[in-house]
Amino acid sequence: MGKINDLDMSNWKELTDVWTDSLWIIPQRDNSGAHDGHYHGNFVPQIPHQLLTRYTKAGDFVLDPFAGSGTTLIEAQRMGRNSIGIELQPSVAAESIGRIHSEPKEGIIADTFVDDSRTFDTKRILETYNINSVQFIIYHPPYWDIIKFSEDENDLSNSTSLDEFINNFRQVVRNTSAILEKGRYCAVVIGDKYANSQLVPLGFYCMQATQQEGLTLKATIVKNFEETKGKANQKALWRQRALQNGLYLFKHEYIFLFKKGK
Fold first, then answer.
1. Which of 62, 108, 231, 244 has the fewest Cβ atoms within 10 Å of its own Cβ atom?
2. Strand, coil or helix: what is 218?
3. Cβ–Cβ under 8 Å, residues 65 and 76
4. In terms of C-beta density within 10 A (0-12 exposed, 13-18 middle, 19 or more buried), how is residue 137 classed?
5. For residue 225, how many other CB atoms are within 10 A of its CB?
6. Which residues, other chains included, contact 123 with Cβ-Cβ below 8 Å and sequence gap of 6+?
7. What is the per-residue pLDDT across 173-229, written as a single tens digit (0 to 9) for each?
8. Domains in the chain: ranges and CATH
9. pTM of structure
């Protein structure tokens, strides 16, 4: 297999905008152009930008099984990568496609299938675009039930238990990683939650679930996040709760990088 990115390693010292550390401090979300931070639960475009810079090259196909507002697809399109999203909610998919197509790039595919990523026939992607595989997958699932994205029982945010959530997520990984090219990479972006007076390490549970599907863990990246919409303008209140109850407030999430064996 040849190069998996477009980086010029003969000038590696000049690649100062490519991150190689495992701690990512991103002060502010990129809200330029089609990127819109209004969708509750979307992630910062700098994450797919860095991942696609390192692990894809122009013309590759990128898959996002939790397409949501289209952040991955918008960034992939800007970078000259083809991208396919899978989104459960038709209204969300329609809105995101409108945003994605507001920044068209000639010869670059950016499309979304409305379906359940656990059971979607991924061969449709291969047949529709006449390809044998995709070259990168970004998984950014709901952080279980922290945000309820819909009333659909198939929505992972409506999983009735932790075991059900992890099993649902694992089904998505199993189904979609089947079309990931051997020797290529995927990433899981996930955070933890607090419930019933204890920490629920969703990130590590999802990491283990992905490993159990035969993917090799290559890196764990910790990324900061600041005030979330759910805690907007409540900083003092949450600090008081933390002090009173012996807790620490979440200020980070994880990006787990995996490689598919050859």
1. 244
2. strand
3. no
4. buried
5. 14
6. 179
7. 999 999 999 999 999 999 998 888 888 899 999 999 999 999 999 999 999 987 655
8. 21-260 (3.40.50.150)
9. 0.90
